[in-house]
Amino acid sequence: MRAPAGVLVALALAGTLWHGMADPRNALAFGLFIAVGEAARWGAGPGERESAPLGAAGALAYALLGESAGRLAGHGVLQTVAVTFAATLAGGAPHGLSLDHLARRALTVGFAAACFQPWYVLGGSSYVALLLLLLVLTALCDAVLSAVLRRARSTDPFGPLLREELRSLVGIAPAVCATGVVIALGVAVAGLWALPVFCVPLLLTQLSFRRYAAIRTTYRQTIASLARATEIAGYTRQGHARRVAELSCAVGRDLGLSGRELTVLEYAALMHDIGQLSLVDPVPEGATASLPAAEQRRIALLGGAVVRQTGVAPAVAVVVERQADPYGEQPLPARIVRAVNAYDDLAGDNRCPSGPLYALERLRLGTARDYHPDVVESLARVLARGGLTGAPAG
C-alpha cells in the first residue's frame, strides 16, 4: 500500500512543480487548514479510525472543491494530492506521523479528487447526487485502505478487519464527510471565509471525542490495574491477564466480533481471574483450568460480584460470571475467555515440555463439553498465524 501511495505522491509533486500551482491562494488556505487539523490530532485508540478529523475534512473539502467564490477552482487531482500530502506532513510531523497514515490520506484524497475533479471540469450534472455518492464511495475506500494497512501490520485475516472498519464508520466519519462537503459548498459560494466558519461544528465534535477518548483511556488503565491485583498478590503468573486479553481479542476478531463486543471481551479477559482474590489458599500458578467444575464456577461468580462493584459495564460482569459454565450455555465472549485462559494456563505449565501443542490438544479433547469447537479452532488459527509460542512460566 505504501508503494502505490509513494508513486502517486511523487507524480503529484512532480506534476505540480512542472505545471505550477493553480490558484495559490486556495492552495495555501486549504493547506494551512489541513496542517492545523493535523497538528490538533490525538492518538487514536481502539475503535477510532480518525485521529485528525479537521485535517481529514479539510483534505476532503479540497478534493471536492469545484469553485471558489463563483469561479472555477481548477486545481486538479495532482495538485490536490500534493497540497494534502505536504500539509499533512507539515502539521503531523511534531506528532511523529506514520507512513501508513500518510499513505492512507494520499490514496483516499486521490480517489475522491479523481472521481470529482474531471467530472466537474467537464460540466457534469446532478451535483448534489454525485457528492452524496462520492461520500459513500470515499468512506468505503478509506475503510478498505485502513483494513489493508492493518492486515499488513498483523496476522489477523482481512475479512474481520474490514468488517470492523465498516462498522466503525458510524463514529466521527459522518461528521468529517458532512463538514468536508459543507466547506466545499460554502467556499464555492462565499469564498475562503467559509473555511473557519463551517469548521466550528466539527471542532466542537473533535473536542468532545477527545475528552471521551481521555476518559476511556483512564477507564481502561483502571481496569488493567485491577486485573494486575491477582499478579501482585501472587495468585496468577506475571502477564497472565494481559496475554489472555490480547489473545482473546485476536480470537474475537477472527470470529467476527468488533467495536463494543471486543471492548467487553477485552475487559472481561483482563478481569477474568479477579475472583481468585477470595481464595484462602491460592491455586498453584493460578491455573484454574485444572480445578473441579464446581470450584471454577464458584470463583467465576465471586469474580463477577467483584466486577459489578467496580462500576464496569454489566456485560463484562456477565462474561466473568459465565466463563466456567458449560459452553452450550455461554455467550460467545465467555466461551473465548474460557478457552484462551485454559490455553495460557496449560501452555505455561512447567511440567509440560511440549507447551502450546499440548495445550491445544487438551482443548480439542475438551470440546465435548468444556470448550466450544469453533472457538478452539479459531484459537488454533490465530496461533498458527502468529506462531505456536507458549506463555512464559513467570
Description:
This protein has helices spanning 2-19, 24-39, 53-63, 76-92, 99-121, 127-153, 158-167, 173-190, 194-198, 200-227, 229-232, 240-254, 260-270, 293-309, 314-322, 332-347, 356-365, 373-386; strands at 67-68, 71-72. The protein has a two-stranded antiparallel ribbon with strand order 1-2. The protein has 394 residues and is mostly helical. The two termini are 39 Å apart.
Beta strand count: 2
Q: Cα distance, first to last residue? A: 39 Å
Largest sheet: 2 strands, antiparallel
Report the β-strand fraction as a percent range. Answer: under 5%
Q: H/E order of the elements?
A: HHHEEHHHHHHHHHHHHHHH
- The percent of residues in helical segments reads 55-70%
> What is the quaternary state of this protein?
single chain
Q: How is the largest sheet built, in terms of strand order?
A: 1-2
The backbone outline, from C-alpha atoms, is: elongated
Structural class: mainly alpha
Average pLDDT figure: 83
Helix tally equals 18
Give Rg in angstroms.
Answer: 26 Å
Give the uncertain stretches in residue-range form: 388-394
